[in-house]
Amino acid sequence: MVGDGSDTNENVVTAAILVIGDEILSGRTKDKNIGYIAEYLTNIGVDLREVRVVSDIEEEIVAAVNALRSRYTYVFTTGGIGPTHDDITADSVAKAFGVPIDVDERAVKLLLERIPKVDLNEARLRMARIPQGADLIENSVSKAPGFTIGNVHVMAGVPTIMQAMLDAVAPTLKTGKKMLSRSIPANAKEGDVAAPLRALQGEYPDVTMGSYPSYADGIPTTTLVLRSRDEARLEEAEAAVKTMLATVRQRISG
Fold it and tell me: Which residues contact 12 (CB under 8 A, 6 or more apart)?
């Protein structure tokens, strides 16, 4: 049940993030990984399509892993691969794939590069438990590895370590045509541009158009963001939007 990317466009590579940990759901820890991974994937030509956050409950992790890996090209998990009793991500991923898990001598060797053998106790050995058939993900920060099995990349939750692991994984990823974007300040309220923007979206169905309201010095304004993989179409749509905005502003001021 390994995902192959359900999008029919061969230029599109898709991904999901699965964040694991009660501390995220309780608010005790503020997630710093989602935005980083999203931007990273966008820059290399991978479309992030979904993010889920689940608690440290095996059944929920297994269900989420199986749902996401069957739907997207890649799944990136963060959290739950440390030395404590509630770090159950590795076991849960092994269960999702239906394979055994045990201490992996490759991982032990890596841990021993940082931890004296006398200090490699039972708790630390938990970080060397890897599902059968998985490849290790290098951790240049603290040596305890992540792992890849099928299309699932299992990474640490600590941001600096996750970032190092993502750098290690990135060269192995299949990538698609990059999504291009343009940001256009509307200098108008969202309600004033909504209808004409909807009309333009109908004319350019291959260009995603979004509006993002905000306040500048207490004055409501809007930024329009256009996204497409086709640079020529993106430029056409951008010109059309700018013409539309000029008309809207003239109507408002007139």
Answer: 5, 47, 176, 177
- Closest of 148, 124, 125 to residue 138, by C-alpha: 148
Residue 7 — very low, low, confident or very high, per pLDDT cuts 50/70/90?
very low
Residue 36: both structure tokens together = 């980083």
The 3-state DSSP class for residue 149 equals: strand
Are residues 89 and 21 in contact, defined by beta-carbon separation less than 8 angstroms? no
The neighbour count for residue 245, using CB atoms within 10 Å, is 21
pLDDT tens sequence across 121-156: 999 999 999 999 999 999 999 999 999 999 999 999
Strand ranges for 105-254 from DSSP E: 129-131, 135-137, 146-149, 152-155, 180-185, 208-216, 219-228
103: phi then psi, degrees, rounded to nearest 5: -60, 130
**What tokens does 88 get?**
């159950």
Burial of 30 (0-12, 13-18, 19+ CB in 10 A): exposed
d(CA 175, CA 13): 6
Helix (H, G, I), strand (E, B) or coil at 132: coil
Q: Which amino acid is at 133?
A: G
Q: C-alpha angle 181/76/164, rounded to 5°?
A: 85
Residue range 187-218, pLDDT digits in tens: 999 999 999 999 999 999 999 999 999 998 88
> What tokens appear for 81 in the block?
């691969």
Give the C-alpha separation, 85 to 91, whole Å: 11
CA dihedral sign of residues 91, 94, 95, 101: negative
CA 193 to chain centre: 31
